[in-house]
């Protein structure tokens, strides 16, 4: 009898188990379906870019701006004989070389532009200030800021093109960290209806950490550019506004303005890089970012693209691909023509990746000598932190960096330095604020904040 009862209970329990198992399966399926639905909705909200929209620009192999510059160069070079002092041709030749540098990233063109401008500024008697200011701009592009200031001051002393000179002196002063001088020059040419004033006022407000005012002034400048129908002004306005919108977390508008830039210049590498950053840092699509960056480096030669590729590969935990891109960067900057243009990138690479701290500190000191800004001092303080010299890092940070810049990277370094010196009361609030800057910092750096 007992055996029969046991067998009955076994059947009942088996049936109950079956029902329980079936119920659990159904619940798991429902939960899975809900999760998939929620995730898919989230992804749709997260997706800002449209690959069908920007794909047409990734396949561009013909660079219209570059082709036009080459035509101009050919035209004017035919009018310059060896050892000639044909001044009228030197300016347009320098302009064409500058355009070639901007459209291809090839440093040789920037150096050729410098050569033409050095000659033209030396021999010019009429319009000499224009040649000197163009040379100053060239030096700024090469990160030769002290020489840029000398050229601009040379133009200023001539007293023939005062407003244009003051604008360049504002630019140079900002690069050199001479902020009082920069503000003084800004006040001299203040005009709320002038494009060149508004874009500089935007830069000043960005330095002061007033992003709303920065965007507001750039939007005013854009209206002027639109009314002028000047493609160069529009292109500059769109790409800069796209950057600022990104800083403000207005990612959709940022993307739209990068697209507007590409509609003007389909080969524009800067706009494509901006879209790559959105796919990587906001949409969490690193593979798509690499696809865009690969398309850029097919036609544009700036070494920093290899560093960005390396960062994305690190995020994907592709260590070999990361190292290959770092090697490509190192090989690219062996060209001495780059001079000091990539000092910051190289110093960070030496310290973070290879722990070659003394060489990195040498470069940081050189950068401070050339460009004594809070960012340059931050570079040195951060390298000292990585080297383990926490007290020295703290001293430099508190004297030259704290409350002197609003850049997220610098603030991250300050927080890290505070933490290393057991000043958690100062570090923790900065870490909390930095969580709002995760888009600007990127997934790799934001991950470090989480770990800290």
UniProtKB/TrEMBL annotation:
- Answer whether the UniProt record assigns the keyword Transmembrane helix to this protein: yes
**Signal peptide (residue range):** none
For this protein, the record's Pfam families field holds: TPR_12
Segments spanning the bilayer are 21-40
Q: Which PROSITE patterns match?
A: TPR
Question: Which UniProt keywords are given for this protein, alphabetically ordered?
Answer: Membrane, TPR repeat, Transmembrane, Transmembrane helix
- Does the keyword section mention rRNA-binding? no
Question: What is the designated name of this protein?
Answer: Tetratricopeptide repeat protein
Task: Please give the organism.
Answer: Aquimarina litoralis
């Amino acid at each position: 009898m007992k055996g029969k009862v046991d067998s009955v209970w076994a059947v009942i329990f088996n049936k109950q188990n079956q029902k329980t198992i079936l119920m659990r399966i159904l619940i798991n399926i429902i939960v899975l379906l809900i999760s998939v639905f929620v995730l898919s909705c989230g992804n749709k909200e997260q997706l800002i870019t449209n690959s069908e929209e920007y794909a047409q620009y990734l396949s561009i192999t013909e660079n219209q701006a570059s082709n036009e510059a080459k035509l101009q160069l050919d035209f004017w070079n035919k009018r310059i004989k060896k050892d000639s002092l044909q001044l009228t041709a030197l300016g347009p030749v320098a302009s064409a070389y500058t355009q070639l540098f901007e459209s291809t990233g090839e440093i040789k063109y920037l150096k050729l532009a410098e050569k033409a401008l050095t000659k033209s500024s030396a021999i010019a008697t009429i319009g000499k200030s224009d040649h000197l200011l163009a040379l100053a701009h060239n030096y700024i592009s090469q990160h030769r800021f002290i020489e840029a200031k000398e050229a601009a001051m040379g133009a200023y002393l001539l007293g023939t093109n005062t407003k244009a000179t003051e604008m360049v002196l504002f630019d140079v002063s900002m690069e050199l960290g001479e902020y009082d001088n920069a503000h003084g020059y800004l006040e001299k040419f203040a005009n709320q209806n002038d494009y060149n004033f508004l874009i500089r006022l935007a830069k000043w407000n960005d330095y002061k950490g007033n992003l709303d005012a920065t965007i507001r002034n750039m939007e005013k400048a854009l209206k002027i550019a639109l009314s002028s129908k000047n493609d160069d002004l529009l292109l500059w306005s769109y790409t800069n506004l796209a950057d600022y919108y990104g800083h403000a977390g207005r990612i959709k508008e940022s993307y739209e303005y990068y697209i507007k830039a590409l509609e003007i210049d389909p080969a524009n590498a800067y706009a494509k890089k901006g879209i790559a950053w959105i796919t990587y840092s906001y949409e969490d699509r690193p593979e798509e970012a690499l696809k865009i960056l690969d398309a850029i480096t097919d036609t544009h030669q700036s070494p920093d693209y290899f560093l960005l590729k390396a960062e994305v590969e690190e995020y994907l935990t592709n260590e070999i691909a990361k190292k290959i891109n770092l090697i490509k960067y190192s090989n690219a900057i062996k060209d001495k023509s780059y001079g000091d243009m990539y000092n910051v990138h190289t110093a960070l690479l030496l310290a973070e990746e290879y722990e070659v701290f003394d060489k990195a500190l040498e470069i940081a000191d050189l950068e401070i000598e050339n460009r004594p800004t809070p960012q340059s001092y931050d570079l040195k303080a951060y390298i000292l932190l990585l080297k383990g010299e926490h007290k020295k890092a703290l001293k430099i940070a508190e004297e030259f960096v704290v409350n002197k810049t609003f850049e997220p990277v610098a603030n991250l370094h300050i927080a890290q330095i505070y933490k290393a010196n057991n000043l958690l009361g100062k570090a923790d609030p900065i870490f909390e604020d930095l969580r709002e800057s995760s888009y600007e910092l990127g997934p790799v750096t934001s991950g470090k904040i989480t770990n800290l």
